[in-house]
Design a protein that fits this description.
single chain, 414 residues, alpha+beta, BirA Bifunctional Protein, domain 2, 2 domains, eight-stranded mixed β-sheet, five-stranded mixed β-sheet, 15 helices, elongated, binds adenosine monophosphate
Length: 414
């Protein structure tokens, strides 16, 4: 029996694992600069948490969640996204009490049963930030700019923030009514859309089958109440003054029900690319809806795999420095313990001032030719060879594995 990774999942190893770590490292620095603290929540939660927060009539809840029962019959779900988990953690750990304006970030795996294709997986990674406790659009602007900063920092530069406002509890009903009236007027909707029209008309705009039919949808901004309109105007002027490249996109609705007011997606400007690299929005009712105190909040998530693919095309990883591989070889096996302690020493201190090294060997049971073949296979840059004659003079042979030149160097100089 040959086992394979489940459909829609992939192993990340070698240089791709290093790039993923580098992206996460860059993200941690950027988040901390803005006062965000890391939070790690469970990979699975009570399935009802996601149903309640993301919404029953959404693709994620209807089609994409991995739901299972544990041995005690509890209905659990692998997290399809982390905002609901963070809101739950915010309430459960009373994080709002010690910090009235809490800023948190997370990095981790998400799970959605989607049809796998390029840039779309069943297990993927998101890096996201959530800002609780501030209702001012300044927080929305901070989140959008932070998401863009993250992309710029990996040299994904040709991007635009597509923004929209979905209104609040007060103005959404009128917007909804206008939308239902428009959508219901002879567009020949698919089965999913007909069902959603009644319960969640905003989601109809996102339909992969029907969305191209909706050419003249009602202008959402016409239905915003004065508070939502003011917030959206202020957001735009803040983004403008920060030099942010943004586009107001009347069709943007996002696939999750908890959003209020601002929603946004950051897309690459390349022709035809509709896939978002990052996305998010404001969710002022979610914390209260799942049992906490009324707390305004705004957040975003970026898809690490998609950002890495975009960064691959950008210059960022060209300058990416892999560590120098050092192979410790033995010409005489009786020097094994000396070579072994040398390896331990350079792992700690580096070699000739370079601390970005990966050390292999010594291996006890191979002759020198085989050890050097092994060094070639792992693409070692340098082999440090312990040989009796040189070692008695306090020296080792340092072999450049590219041009195969070899010099005697005093151990103390390394
Ligand atoms: P969402 O949680 O749907 O708002 O998505 C936020 C970001 O996560 C998107 O912009 C994508 O970059 C990424 N993403 C969402 N779903 C997937 C998936 N199935 N595979 C890979 N990346 C994804």
């Amino acid at each position: 029996m040959i086992y394979k990774a489940p459909r829609g999942t992939h192993d990340i190893f070698g240089v791709n694992a290093a790039k993923m770590s580098l992206l996460e490292q860059v993200a941690r620095v950027i988040f901390r600069k803005r006062g965000f603290e890391e939070i790690r929540t469970p990979i699975f939660e009570d399935a009802a948490l996601f149903m309640r927060s993301i919404g029953q009539v959404t693709d994620i809840v209807e089609k994409e969640m991995y739901v299972f029962e544990d041995k005690k019959g509890r209905k659990l779900a692998l997290r399809p996204e982390a905002t609901a988990s963070l809101a739950r953690a915010f309430i459960e750990n009373r994080l709002g009490i010690s910090m009235p304006a809490g800023k948190f970030f997370y990095i981790g795996e998400m799970f959605r049963y989607e049809r796998p294709q390029a840039g779309r997986y069943r297990q993927f990674h998101q890096i996201g930030g959530e800002f609780f406790g501030v209702s001012s659009p300044a927080a929305d602007a901070e989140i959008i700019l932070l998401a863009q900063d993250l992309l710029y920092s990996v040299e994904v530069n040709e991007i635009s923030a597509h923004i929209n406002s979905l209104g609040c509890k007060n103005c959404r009903p009128a917007l909804r009514e206008a939308l239902v009236k428009y959508l219901d007027s002879g567009h020949g909707l698919c089965g999913d859309c007909l069902r959603r029209l009644k319960r969640n008309p905003l989601r109809v705009l996102d339909c992969k089958i029907d969305s191209h039919k909706f050419t003249e949808i009602p202008q959402m901004s016409d239905y915003l109440c004065s508070e939502c309109k003011c917030s959206f105007d202020l957001l735009q002027s803040l983004l403008e003054s920060a030099g942010c490249n943004y586009i107001v996109d009347n069709r943007l609705v996002r696939g999750l029900d908890y959003y209020t007011k601002t929603v946004f997606e950051i897309r690459q400007d390349t022709a035809g690319s509709r896939e978002a690299l990052a996305a998010g929005g404001r969710y002022d009712n979610l914390v209260e809806d799942i049992g906490g105190q009324s707390t305004p909040a705004v957040g975003f998530a970026l898809g690490s795999e998609r950002v890495l693919a975009a960064a691959q095309k950008a210059k960022f990883f060209i300058s990416f420095q892999e560590s120098e591989k050092i192979y410790i070889a033995l010409a005489d096996s009786e020097l094994f313990s000396e070579a072994f302690s040398f390896a331990v020493k350079i792992v700690k201190n580096g070699l000739r001032g370079n601390k970005n090294i990966s050390v292999f060997g010594p291996l006890e049971d191979k002759n020198l030719t085989n050890q050097l073949k092994f060094a070639d296979k792992i693409k070692a840059c340098t082999a440090v060879i312990f040989a009796k004659t040189e070692f008695e003079k306090g020296k080792v042979l340092v072999k450049n594995m590219k041009d195969k030149t070899q010099t005697e160097i005093s151990i103390n100089e390394l």
